[in-house]
Here is the input.
Amino acid sequence: MLMPQDKGPIDQTGEWEALQRHWESLAGRHMRDMFATDPQRSERYSLSACGLELDYSKNLVDEKAMELLLDLAAAAGLPAWRERLFAGDRVNTTEQRAVLHMALRSLGDRAYRCDGEDVMDGIRSVLARMRAFSEKVRNGAWRGHTGEPITDIVSIGIGGSSLGPKMACEALRPYQRADLRVHFVSNVDEAHLASTLESLDPASTLFIVASKTFTTQETLTNARSARDWLVRRLGGEAAVASHFVAVSTNAEAVAAFGIDTEHMFEFWEWVGGRYSLWSSIGLPIALAVGFERFEELLAGANAMDEHFLSAPLEHNMPVILGLLGIWYRNFAGCDSLAIVPYHQHLEYLPAFLQQLDMESNGKQVTRDGVPVSYQTGPVIWGAPGTDAQHSFFQLLHQGTRAIPVDFILPLCPAYDLPGHHDKLVANCLAQAQALMRGRSADEVRDEMAAAGLPAERIEALVPHRTFPGNRPSNLLVFDRLTPQVLGALIALYEHKVFVQGVIWGVDSFDQWGVELGKQLAGQILRVFEGDGASQGTDASTAGLIRRYQEAACSRQA
Ligand code: F6P
Here is the structure.
């Protein structure tokens, strides 16, 4: 099928040029004035779907900008690409793979096929095993080697095999039980595993080794050390069977590691690592909050899939969020996007979205291997408010570059502690308002004059106390962070990333950029092990290798 992207680079289209011209024509317009002249602005630029409300009125857009952005989506063939994605076409072109994480949360509503084969039976069977296993662990029927019930679960994995479940477990902390704790170990730095194991009793600890490939250096190193720790303390290899389970697509490697494949929860090649929390990679979530809650998470994501598939583009939340990102990245020249959840339990959301977005759209060539002549994925970063207000918000308000912000806000508190939530909400709304409005020099003067400051002092301070404003933000609100809402929120960002990848014409589902570092680390490691030479290595790296070899600690490593 000839896709619109095959017609030529997106930045050579009339739609792109029209957007460029429109951006230039908006120079000098301030959002303050846009609000002042349009009392309907907030309603006009708001959307609801799947328990989420998106207020995107504090963006530097007018109706024409939105129309032109939607034209660009059409020019990039977004509806056709969306069809191909859901139809199980191999949209991950460089790896020749289908991308079907939506099937994992379909809950029987829709048939998904890969190479003509229905994938739903396999999904249902793994879900049934996850349910049975999580119930056994949670009700104490699953016992450790010495007959103890499980009190601590350590999930060992990295990247997509860790960030999603870790973020979701923390987000759903109010649904967790105090007597079953879930820990995540990802870093090969022994500090991560050692400090996690320090307080654990091996007799009541269960390890989940989570790796799609089961070849990832960090995960296998941590898993081996964890197994040694367990075997040493429980007195033999026989203990492994009741304390280790695996989540992987690679049964052979799981067996070679010494985990019975009876205790392996399978998933499939068509589930990308950063899109895998919906698969058995989500086992720690099911263990932490119970299988019913895990199903609710899937249901929330499924609702967002259906919205993405069926809502007209102009009312489609992932499409609108994606197009606003294109507007800032490609026409306003913004380099990054800040994610600021006003919910402490969404602490790990920025890190999760970092991998989701930056590993997906951090690409410099199109699907055909042609270098792009426009910017692609922005830097994603962020931290929870209100803490973030006391660290990086200064730059957001008065730095030289505009950085769009996604504010994420629950309207109802997760706990019942009076005197907090009003302040949290007030701060979030105030930050979005301040970024948009700014504070003019005259306002600064009036304020300081009213406070009785002398004229000379006022003039010296005016430039410092003036805020340009006109800085864009989205506000995503919901009642409570339930499993459904969390599912919808994550799926919203997944599809947003897809929308942007389609417009940029890149393969959002591969990650070749992580390979080179892995290969070079292997070579350096061989030098450390005396099984390779550092010849051909640049002088800086060679010098640092020598420096490490001379350091006292490397001789004990
Ligand atoms: O960092 C690259 C990567 O391949 C990620 O995409 C993936 O999520 C992570 O490594 C972990 O891979 P695996 O699940 O195979 O251990």
Observations:
- The pocket of 6-O-phosphono-beta-D-fructofuranose is lined by residues 158-161, 211-213, 216, 219, 273-274, 359, 511, 514 (CB under 6 Å).
- The CA atoms of residues 215 and 253 lie 8 Å apart.
- The chain has a mean pLDDT of 96.
- The radius of gyration is 26 Å.
